[in-house]
Amino acid sequence: MKDRSKEHGAPPQGAAIESRRDFLRKSGAAVGSALSFGAIGLILPDELEGVTTTDYDWTKHRWIYLIDTYKCIGCGSCVRACRAENEVPEEMFRTWIERYQILAGGEAHVDSPHGGEFGFPPVAEEHHKTKSYFVPKMCNHCEQTPCTQVCPVGASYSTRDGAVLVDPQRCIGCGYCVQACPYGSRFINPRTHTADKCTWCYHRLTKGLKTACVEICPVNARIIGDMKDPDDPVHEILATKRVQALQPQLLTKPQCLYIGLDTEVR
Amino acid sequence: MFPELTGFLFPNDIHIHWSLMIVMYPYITGLVAGSFLVSSFYHVFGRQEFKPLARLALATSLCFLTVATFPLLNHLGHPERGVNIVITPNFSSAMAGFGILYATYFIIVLLEIWFVFRVDIIRRAAESRGIPRFLYSVAALGVYDTSEEAVQIDERITRVLAAIGIPMACLLHGYVGFLFGALKSNPWWSTPLMPIIFLFSAMVSGMALLMVLYQIGAKVKGLPINRDSISALARWLWLFMIVSLTLEVLEIMTLAYERAEEWEVIGYLLTHQLSISFISIQMVVGGLIPFILLMLLVLMDRYLDDRVRNTLAFVSSSLLLLQVLSMRWNVVIGGQLFSKSMRGFRETYVPGMFEKEGVLAAVIILAIPFILLTVFERILPTMRGDGGGEVAARS
Known about the structure:
By secondary structure, chain A is of the alpha+beta class. Chain A has eight helices and eleven strands. Chain A folds into two domains: 4-40, no CATH class; 45-266, CATH 3.30.70.20.
């Protein structure tokens, strides 16, 4: 574990590089092991020096999440990373990927085998497809969220920096929030018997890290940005791209916005 | 076991989070509210034909009220934190009103029962010996005035309590409908009609339950069944079931006629997953058949033999009890058989027999109020006052 910084960095000084081929082989192995480390278990915040939550001020941040459906390749890394990072129980999903195939005639065929966690199988049926795309889904961290509204004990709450969280110490497990969420983002955790959902990896955000799904995404389809940071690239994206929220007619004001959302997506 | 699925469901939507217990909860509170309102027909509106039922109705309401929280507590992931709904409520939640409504209503019912049964408590205290005497004396709260003047005051207070109880009962149960009706996430629940549908079906279930209980109670105790009471209760039951059923059909009709987006899902749901529980049971066996039976009873009342009338009333009431139960099932479970993706369905939900929220737990919870009622009957007679006053209204 301690050697991981070396893997990311340059080869140790004085290492004899016999040939170009050998160099490429060695560095290839280093990159490969770094990638596989990332795929199996992410770097845990506690393992990184100087990363603490003590200096985090939630009034100085306002998080926003962007998903670029043009970029998503449906590899499922984000689903796996989320499960590993947050110990999401089997058969439950804090994030998942949907595959849309618009068939000739306009009908949409949607699937999400095991939440897209292990990628997608080739399409069995031969359809003439006009277009197809992947849509990653997760909690929308709505500003006007029905889930915190209905929580009878205030265990579901919105943080000042925009995240919607559940306090598992207070949650009574009534499931009302699960019913109230129009996006199917919540579930009752069978281990804790409390409501569970995406936290935007709040334990990472507050330590200056990105969420597990953003970190792992190989194509940058997922972006988390800070609206209160004027230098954050998210401002430029919002200023130049056309973005849309899921089910905007419900007026829940999602803080998770999509680039390239199609009408078929709910 | 993995449920059978059709179409595309959001992956978290394949689970039924609100199970049989959440079906039982509105069923039980409906019985509470409905039976209370029957007692108010006599206590507030002075309908003499309901006098033989008034005490039974109150006791029934109390017994079912006692267990109303059981299915909820059994359902909660953390029942030990359930009390937080009352002590630290989040008032933006519809559910937070539960503690206040439940507690207030409980107090009103208890008070009303005390005033209604006060004379009987005193008489029993005087007639019994030993521990029962002590307990009855405690229940009398040290007041032994049974003068005509005191009894009149009792009646006046009872009338006020019963009058306050009417809106409280409506709130207690309308609130349950509101819990479902005010969720914009679910098109099968989200309608302002929901609390009203719940209220009328509560009336139906409460009246039907009393019809059944009264006839069984009279049979067991060897008491004559009051013809006027049966006729009157059947008439009101017929009216309320017509309104209730009309509202239930109206909701569907509106959705279907509007051809709203949600009809694609709900139309499929009603004709596939819910075809038996909705069309066969809620509409035909529990709706149309009791409607015809009660219509016969009401229109041909004066030509009917007592036994025929009682049988018609008993059978149609039993069917209506089933109807209301199926309505609760269709609302609660039906609302979870489709995904919020509006593209996919779970084919069935069959609760397990012995699981935590399974059939056995539901049967036990539903049996408790009947056991309580027999205990209540031993302590304080509901069918007949000790002085025989309650059957005096016999025609």
